[in-house]
Input
Amino acid sequence: MDLVPPVVVYVTLGLGAALENIVPAVPADTFVALGGLLSTLGDLDVRWIFVATWSLNTASAVLMYRVGWIHGRPFFERGWGQRVLKPHQMDRMVRFYDRWGTWAIFLTRFLPALRAVVPIFAGVTQQRPLFVVAPIASASAIWYGALIWIGVATGHNLDTLRAVLSRTSGILAAVAAVVFFFAARWWWRTRWTADE
Output
């Protein structure tokens, strides 16, 4: 551990956490919890691990929100994108975000895969920045603080950390699958009629 300067480790963990919002298959949770564990092995400070992982993950989520804001609507209004989301479905999604967006964004920041998708659609529906950034930042702070604590609590035992993360990820993935099921069901039911 002494061979790698702490700043390089902080940046690497932060970039790993940030990547999840761009490539949802990359689990930010692993980078964050691993950072907590690594802090027990050497000169790393858990506060800097938190700052690096939380700030870069939040920044990449906000970046994807901005991409959705700029490019989302045009994508879904023509060509292939129009086949994915019909105009009346877009209108319903805008109404959903207007009513429940802040809470939906906050709660999905705890769920794998969905945490990366929801900010994009908040941008597509052009939600106000404060109502997107605040729940992203606060939920990520809570979740990453908990993950770092788990990493520290498992101490030097990588197998224990792996088991705790596996169990936690399994539960959260199941919840995410249920949410995804209902979202897919809504998409299918509203696909052909604007009245449903």
In short: Residues 46-77 form the longest helix (32 residues).
